[in-house]
Amino acid sequence: MTEPLLEVKNLTKIYGQKKNLLRSGNQVLAVNNVSFTVNKGETFGIVGESGSGKTTIGRMIMQLVNHTNGDILYKGQKYSEFTKESAERFKSKVQIIFQDSGSAFNPRKTIGSQIAYPLLKKIKDRKAVLDEVIKFIEMVGLSKEMAYRYPHELSGGQRQRAGIARALILKPELLVLDEPVSALDVSVKSQIINLLENLQKKYNLTYIFIAHNLDLVAYFCDRIAVMYHGEIKEVGSTKQIYQFPHNPITKKLLSSILTLDGRYKVSN
Amino acid sequence: MYTNIRWRKFGKYLVKDKMASIGIAIIMVTIITAIFAPLLAPYNPNEASDTATRLAMPFTSGHILGTDSQGRDILSRLIYGSRTSILSATIPVIISGVISIILGIVAGFSKKIGGFIMRIMDVLFAFPSVLLAVVIAAILGPGLFNVCLAMVIVRIPYMTRVVYTDTVQEMQKEYIEAASAFGRTKFEIMFKELLPNVLPSLIVYATTLMGVTVVTIAGLSFIGLGIQPPTADWGLMASNGKNVLVQGDPYVTLFPGLAILILAVAFSMLGDWLRDLLDPTKK
Ligand SMILES: Nc1ncnc2c1ncn2[C@@H]1O[C@H](COP(=O)(O)OP(=O)(O)OP(=O)(O)O)[C@@H](O)[C@H]1O
Ligand SMILES: [Mg+2]
């Protein structure tokens, strides 16, 4: 937990186009001047209500959208200064698990083929790829028949596991988890969280965990950033955030958790 | 694992849906008739037989469906006429379908190119399609090839719009973002991710359009812009029959008219059935 894996400096994202003669200009300031660092091996939580810009930060880290202002550095190297090779290498090192497992898979392709295609780009031997896909599918707790199924033939929890298998198959270092369990039942939720914890240990992964309330975050994260309307209001260790919240937004988020079961990392 | 086609579903659906079976049977019969026309037709379609009388009633003097005003056997002309009908119904729709799927996906995928493509489509849209077909056919001159070309041009804006609307809708979904996160190129996203999701509704639409096209081309032939005499063609036959219709001889027009109607309905039955078959959430 020493060297920062990811640094985000004064990051800003404005969606939409500037107003001009032809356009009315409907710009949205989704993320406003946000800075934080994520250390190797830790779980960094980003918490905020719906629309506060959490997914947008995830998208920018994944380079799925360009940022408007500021810098993102991966292992000290600026995104804007990536060469073609370093961008390629980076792409397999940072992966994402999407918020909505129901639409994160193409409905007309089998689960297995969708887990396979990142790997098919690197390895041409189809048999080897298939073996690897089955290995990862079983590792996330699914049976190998699931590879031949279509997304709608899986439950939400099973789809989320498949999403984890897809994200892990290129052996990433950093995983962006965009509300990976918020659409799931309580019992399934804890199973997925357990799986994520085990995988973190096994592969020495760094997580960015996005959530809209402080419920699971306390248990799962080492450090937390609290977002409100595109801005980070407070960053600190889980202990600081829970025991000495400064910002009224944080206090409000805390008070909305009715049952704190005390299992969070503060206590150990 | 790498294939998406489900043949078992195909068989299951066919048994379940009687209307679809009838539609497919009609189309198959038409295709077989078209291929084996020389073997099936009892007479030469373009010449009056020696013994023929003009405007013979059905079931008289060896002509099951009677003869037309030139003494030609109507059944034989119907059999040969299936050739132009099935060809002119399917080929133009398939060609405009292929063009439209590319235009529609590219337009839906890229905002910049999309605006340009869809503005051109809007211009074509501004004209009623039948009128446009008539004008194009008139400019190009009569003949099967030119009529088909006119149909291709007329259908492209409609089919492109269907693909474009679907593509824009699919682009909102997370799997597209997932695909680019997991290393798909733009080309792959368009033709490996989007294509299988927008193709089914285009196929359904295209099948229904085939039925409409049978009628439209028959109509163009009817007003003299399509296929030229003496070729045996259903629209042309109906056109010739109109002169004797008022004299109390309806059969010359009735039989080709019915043939056009039945084939058009068969295509629309097929379209309805494909809609269910191609839906992945139905089993
Ligand atoms: N593609 C886009 N174009 C324009 N505005 C967008 C786009 N995506 C998101 N926004 C806007 O940016 C803001 C932040 O959205 P974002 O999806 O990052 O929120 P979030 O914190 O992930 O919310 P949730 O908890 O509901 O997922 C919202 O106001 C949203 O409407
Ligand atoms: Mg979100």
From TrEMBL, chain A:
Transmembrane found in the keyword field: no
Key words, A-Z: ATP-binding, Nucleotide-binding, Transport
Domain ABC transporter: 6-254
One of the record's GO molecular function terms: ATP binding
Transport in keyword set: yes
Entry protein name: ATP-binding cassette domain-containing protein
The organism of origin for this protein: Terrilactibacillus laevilacticus
Automatic annotation (TrEMBL), chain B:
Membrane topology: Multi-pass membrane protein
Superkingdom classification of source: Bacteria
ABC transmembrane type-1 domain mapped to chain residues: 82-271
Keyword Transmembrane helix (UniProt): yes
Location(s) in or outside the cell: Cell membrane
UniProt xrefs under Pfam families: BPD_transp_1, OppC_N
Primary location recorded for the protein, binned into one broad class: membrane
Residues annotated as transmembrane: 20-41, 86-109, 116-138, 202-227, 251-274
Protein name: ABC transporter permease
Organism of this sequence: Terrilactibacillus laevilacticus
